[in-house]
Amino acid sequence: MTQKLFGVFFLGFLFSVLAPSCPLRAQAPIDTSLPEEPLPHRRVLLLFPGYETIQDPNIPVATLRPKQKFEMAYRKTVDVSFPIESVMFASFDQVASYGPQYGPGGGPFAERIGYNAANLASTFFFTDALLPTAFHQDPRYFRKGGGSIGSRIWWALRSEAVAYSDQGRQMPNYSNMLGFGMSTALSNAYSPESSNTFGSTMERFGVKEGVSFGLNIMREFGGITAPEKHQVAPH
What we know:
By secondary structure, the protein is mainly alpha-helical. 54% of the residues lie in helices and 9% in strands. It has one domain. The protein has helices at 2-18, 66-78, 81-96, 106-134, 149-161, 174-187, 198-221, and strands at 30-31, 43-44, 48-49, 53-54, 61-62, 137-138, 141-142, 162-165, 170-172. The protein has a three-stranded antiparallel sheet with strand order 6-8-9. It has a two-stranded parallel ribbon with strand order 1-5.
Protein backbone atom coordinates (compact mmCIF):
# COMPACT_ATOMS: atom_id res chain seq x y z
CA MET A 1 0.00 0.00 0.00
CA THR A 2 2.76 2.45 0.93
CA GLN A 3 4.61 1.79 -2.32
CA LYS A 4 1.41 2.39 -4.32
CA LEU A 5 0.80 5.67 -2.52
CA PHE A 6 4.35 6.79 -3.22
CA GLY A 7 3.83 5.83 -6.85
CA VAL A 8 0.63 7.87 -7.15
CA PHE A 9 2.26 10.87 -5.49
CA PHE A 10 5.29 10.65 -7.79
CA LEU A 11 3.12 10.40 -10.91
CA GLY A 12 1.13 13.42 -9.76
CA PHE A 13 4.33 15.39 -9.23
CA LEU A 14 5.70 14.34 -12.63
CA PHE A 15 2.42 15.31 -14.29
CA SER A 16 2.55 18.74 -12.68
CA VAL A 17 6.04 19.32 -14.05
CA LEU A 18 5.42 18.07 -17.60
CA ALA A 19 1.87 19.29 -18.24
CA PRO A 20 2.75 23.00 -18.53
CA SER A 21 5.11 22.17 -21.41
CA CYS A 22 2.13 20.89 -23.43
CA PRO A 23 -0.24 23.88 -23.34
CA LEU A 24 -3.80 23.64 -24.65
CA ARG A 25 -3.85 27.39 -25.06
CA ALA A 26 -1.07 29.94 -25.08
CA GLN A 27 -2.27 32.46 -22.52
CA ALA A 28 -4.74 32.73 -19.70
CA PRO A 29 -7.22 35.58 -20.09
CA ILE A 30 -5.43 37.68 -17.47
CA ASP A 31 -4.69 41.28 -18.35
CA THR A 32 -2.48 42.99 -15.79
CA SER A 33 -3.43 46.40 -17.18
CA LEU A 34 -7.10 46.01 -16.20
CA PRO A 35 -8.27 47.73 -13.00
CA GLU A 36 -9.15 45.63 -9.98
CA GLU A 37 -12.52 43.91 -10.26
CA PRO A 38 -14.79 42.93 -7.34
CA LEU A 39 -15.23 39.25 -6.56
CA PRO A 40 -18.40 38.00 -8.26
CA HIS A 41 -21.20 36.42 -6.19
CA ARG A 42 -21.50 33.24 -8.22
CA ARG A 43 -22.93 29.95 -6.98
CA VAL A 44 -22.18 26.34 -7.88
CA LEU A 45 -25.34 24.18 -7.82
CA LEU A 46 -27.20 27.23 -6.44
CA LEU A 47 -25.55 26.82 -3.05
CA PHE A 48 -21.77 26.65 -2.95
CA PRO A 49 -19.57 29.73 -3.57
CA GLY A 50 -18.23 30.11 -7.10
CA TYR A 51 -15.88 33.06 -6.66
CA GLU A 52 -12.99 31.19 -8.22
CA THR A 53 -14.58 30.32 -11.57
CA ILE A 54 -13.77 32.31 -14.70
CA GLN A 55 -16.70 31.58 -17.01
CA ASP A 56 -15.64 32.90 -20.40
CA PRO A 57 -12.14 31.87 -21.60
CA ASN A 58 -12.19 34.62 -24.25
CA ILE A 59 -12.82 37.66 -22.07
CA PRO A 60 -9.72 39.00 -20.27
CA VAL A 61 -9.95 39.43 -16.51
CA ALA A 62 -7.98 41.55 -14.08
CA THR A 63 -5.22 40.14 -11.92
CA LEU A 64 -6.47 38.91 -8.58
CA ARG A 65 -4.85 41.04 -5.86
CA PRO A 66 -3.39 39.40 -2.72
CA LYS A 67 -6.08 40.95 -0.51
CA GLN A 68 -8.73 39.45 -2.81
CA LYS A 69 -7.21 35.99 -2.44
CA PHE A 70 -7.55 36.26 1.33
CA GLU A 71 -11.02 37.75 0.92
CA MET A 72 -12.07 34.80 -1.21
CA ALA A 73 -10.86 32.29 1.37
CA TYR A 74 -12.60 34.25 4.14
CA ARG A 75 -15.90 34.53 2.30
CA LYS A 76 -15.95 30.82 1.48
CA THR A 77 -15.35 30.06 5.17
CA VAL A 78 -18.15 32.30 6.49
CA ASP A 79 -20.57 31.46 3.67
CA VAL A 80 -23.95 29.92 4.51
CA SER A 81 -22.86 26.77 2.68
CA PHE A 82 -19.88 26.17 4.96
CA PRO A 83 -21.73 24.32 7.78
CA ILE A 84 -23.69 22.40 5.14
CA GLU A 85 -20.47 21.22 3.54
CA SER A 86 -19.08 20.25 6.96
CA VAL A 87 -22.17 18.15 7.73
CA MET A 88 -22.11 16.56 4.25
CA PHE A 89 -18.49 15.45 4.59
CA ALA A 90 -19.06 14.30 8.17
CA SER A 91 -22.06 12.24 7.06
CA PHE A 92 -20.01 10.60 4.33
CA ASP A 93 -17.24 9.83 6.83
CA GLN A 94 -19.75 8.33 9.27
CA VAL A 95 -21.53 6.17 6.71
CA ALA A 96 -18.40 5.03 4.87
CA SER A 97 -16.28 4.66 8.04
CA TYR A 98 -13.79 6.93 6.33
CA GLY A 99 -11.40 9.44 7.82
CA PRO A 100 -10.57 9.84 11.52
CA GLN A 101 -12.12 7.06 13.56
CA TYR A 102 -14.17 8.81 16.24
CA GLY A 103 -16.59 5.93 16.62
CA PRO A 104 -20.38 5.64 16.20
CA GLY A 105 -23.06 7.81 17.79
CA GLY A 106 -24.08 11.45 18.05
CA GLY A 107 -21.04 12.67 19.98
CA PRO A 108 -18.49 11.28 17.53
CA PHE A 109 -20.59 12.62 14.65
CA ALA A 110 -20.35 16.11 16.14
CA GLU A 111 -16.58 15.62 16.37
CA ARG A 112 -16.53 14.65 12.70
CA ILE A 113 -18.37 17.86 11.84
CA GLY A 114 -15.81 19.89 13.77
CA TYR A 115 -12.97 18.02 12.10
CA ASN A 116 -14.35 18.65 8.62
CA ALA A 117 -15.08 22.31 9.37
CA ALA A 118 -11.48 22.85 10.48
CA ASN A 119 -10.24 20.88 7.48
CA LEU A 120 -12.25 22.96 5.02
CA ALA A 121 -11.20 26.24 6.61
CA SER A 122 -7.50 25.35 6.50
CA THR A 123 -7.82 24.11 2.91
CA PHE A 124 -9.40 27.39 1.80
CA PHE A 125 -6.72 29.36 3.64
CA PHE A 126 -3.79 27.48 2.14
CA THR A 127 -5.08 26.93 -1.43
CA ASP A 128 -6.94 30.21 -2.02
CA ALA A 129 -4.98 32.73 0.05
CA LEU A 130 -1.58 31.97 1.58
CA LEU A 131 0.12 29.89 -1.11
CA PRO A 132 -1.35 31.73 -4.13
CA THR A 133 -0.01 34.94 -2.59
CA ALA A 134 3.40 33.42 -1.81
CA PHE A 135 3.78 31.90 -5.30
CA HIS A 136 2.12 34.83 -7.14
CA GLN A 137 -0.38 32.33 -8.49
CA ASP A 138 -4.02 32.76 -9.50
CA PRO A 139 -6.21 30.30 -7.54
CA ARG A 140 -9.19 30.66 -9.87
CA TYR A 141 -10.45 27.98 -12.28
CA PHE A 142 -10.31 29.10 -15.92
CA ARG A 143 -12.92 27.16 -17.90
CA LYS A 144 -12.03 25.72 -21.27
CA GLY A 145 -15.67 26.23 -22.16
CA GLY A 146 -15.65 24.44 -25.51
CA GLY A 147 -14.37 21.47 -27.49
CA SER A 148 -15.07 17.79 -27.00
CA ILE A 149 -16.26 16.37 -23.70
CA GLY A 150 -13.02 14.43 -23.38
CA SER A 151 -10.85 17.51 -23.90
CA ARG A 152 -12.82 19.43 -21.28
CA ILE A 153 -12.52 16.59 -18.75
CA TRP A 154 -8.78 16.53 -19.45
CA TRP A 155 -8.69 20.30 -18.92
CA ALA A 156 -10.42 19.91 -15.54
CA LEU A 157 -7.90 17.24 -14.52
CA ARG A 158 -4.96 19.19 -15.91
CA SER A 159 -6.03 22.25 -13.93
CA GLU A 160 -5.30 20.32 -10.74
CA ALA A 161 -1.63 20.30 -11.70
CA VAL A 162 -1.32 23.39 -13.91
CA ALA A 163 -2.30 26.92 -12.88
CA TYR A 164 -1.63 30.46 -14.05
CA SER A 165 0.62 33.05 -12.51
CA ASP A 166 -0.73 36.50 -11.68
CA GLN A 167 0.70 37.59 -15.05
CA GLY A 168 -1.13 34.82 -16.95
CA ARG A 169 1.77 32.42 -17.52
CA GLN A 170 1.33 28.70 -16.98
CA MET A 171 3.05 27.17 -13.98
CA PRO A 172 2.74 24.09 -11.74
CA ASN A 173 -0.23 24.37 -9.41
CA TYR A 174 1.80 24.69 -6.21
CA SER A 175 -1.18 26.16 -4.37
CA ASN A 176 -3.27 23.02 -4.76
CA MET A 177 -0.57 20.40 -4.36
CA LEU A 178 1.17 21.98 -1.39
CA GLY A 179 -2.04 23.43 0.06
CA PHE A 180 -3.80 20.07 0.17
CA GLY A 181 -0.69 18.54 1.71
CA MET A 182 -0.37 21.25 4.35
CA SER A 183 -4.05 21.15 5.35
CA THR A 184 -3.94 17.35 5.51
CA ALA A 185 -0.82 17.40 7.68
CA LEU A 186 -2.40 20.04 9.93
CA SER A 187 -5.51 17.88 10.34
CA ASN A 188 -3.37 15.29 12.11
CA ALA A 189 -3.12 17.74 15.02
CA TYR A 190 -6.86 17.55 15.74
CA SER A 191 -7.74 13.99 14.72
CA PRO A 192 -7.36 10.79 16.79
CA GLU A 193 -3.77 9.63 16.99
CA SER A 194 -4.78 6.17 15.78
CA SER A 195 -5.89 7.74 12.47
CA ASN A 196 -2.63 9.55 11.82
CA THR A 197 -0.76 6.82 9.97
CA PHE A 198 1.13 7.60 6.80
CA GLY A 199 -1.34 5.61 4.74
CA SER A 200 -4.43 7.34 6.13
CA THR A 201 -2.80 10.76 5.72
CA MET A 202 -1.98 10.07 2.07
CA GLU A 203 -5.49 8.72 1.57
CA ARG A 204 -7.02 11.96 2.87
CA PHE A 205 -4.69 13.91 0.59
CA GLY A 206 -5.84 11.84 -2.38
CA VAL A 207 -9.50 12.36 -1.51
CA LYS A 208 -8.97 16.14 -1.46
CA GLU A 209 -7.46 15.98 -4.93
CA GLY A 210 -10.39 13.86 -6.10
CA VAL A 211 -12.98 16.23 -4.63
CA SER A 212 -11.19 19.19 -6.21
CA PHE A 213 -11.23 17.46 -9.60
CA GLY A 214 -14.95 16.80 -9.18
CA LEU A 215 -15.54 20.48 -8.46
CA ASN A 216 -13.57 21.36 -11.59
CA ILE A 217 -15.91 19.12 -13.60
CA MET A 218 -18.92 20.99 -12.19
CA ARG A 219 -17.30 24.34 -12.96
CA GLU A 220 -16.40 23.25 -16.47
CA PHE A 221 -19.76 21.84 -17.52
CA GLY A 222 -22.13 24.24 -15.81
CA GLY A 223 -24.23 24.51 -12.69
CA ILE A 224 -22.83 27.98 -11.98
CA THR A 225 -25.19 30.91 -11.60
CA ALA A 226 -24.53 34.32 -13.11
CA PRO A 227 -23.12 36.96 -10.75
CA GLU A 228 -25.68 38.51 -8.46
CA LYS A 229 -26.38 42.22 -8.84
CA HIS A 230 -24.86 42.95 -5.46
CA GLN A 231 -21.12 42.38 -5.66
CA VAL A 232 -18.33 42.57 -3.15
CA ALA A 233 -16.93 46.06 -3.36
CA PRO A 234 -13.16 46.35 -3.83
CA HIS A 235 -11.30 47.61 -0.78
